[in-house]
TrEMBL record:
PANTHER family: F-BOX DOMAIN-CONTAINING PROTEIN-RELATED, LEUCINE RICH REPEAT FAMILY PROTEIN. SUPFAM superfamilies: RNI-like (SSF52047). The lineage of its organism: Eukaryota, Metamonada, Anaeramoebidae, Anaeramoeba. It comes from Anaeramoeba flamelloides. This is Leucine rich repeat family protein. It holds the Pfam family LRR_6.
């Protein structure tokens, strides 16, 4: 994941990255998030059916504050819960680029939904 992240950091032509079911966990998300901070061309990122969990979601949230080109983010089947959604909710208050967010089949409860709802009022 680190090699892919390093190369996509400087790639300015890739617009769609599909990494469905690749065993990406929190460590892999940390490497990928570093490239997302600098990348200015990626618009679609499909990470469905990996296991970043809350820790990986917090890392992704930090990079989402910097990346304004990503418009579609697919995060189904990640084990994301309320804590992960709370951090992502804060990022969405700053991020104005994301228009499609897929979060099906996670472990998001009432607190996570509330955080997401609050961020969408601002976004």
């Amino acid at each position: 994941m680190e090699t892919l992240s390093a190369s996509s950091k400087f790639n300015q032509t890739l617009t769609y990255l599909h990494l469905h079911y690749n065993g990406i966990g929190a460590d892999g998300m940390e490497a990928l998030s570093e490239s997302l901070k600098a990348n200015k061309s990626l618009t679609i990122l499909n990470l469905a059916d990996n296991k970043i969990g809350n820790e990986g979601m917090e890392t992704l949230s930090a990079s989402s504050k910097f990346n304004q080109t990503l418009t579609y983010l697919h995060l189904s089947y990640h084990g994301i819960g309320d804590e992960g959604m709370k951090s992502f909710g804060k990022a969405l208050k700053v991020n104005q680029g994301l228009t499609i967010l897929v979060l099906s089949s996670n472990e998001i409860g009432a607190e996570g939904v509330e955080s997401l709802s609050e961020s969408l009022k601002v976004n």
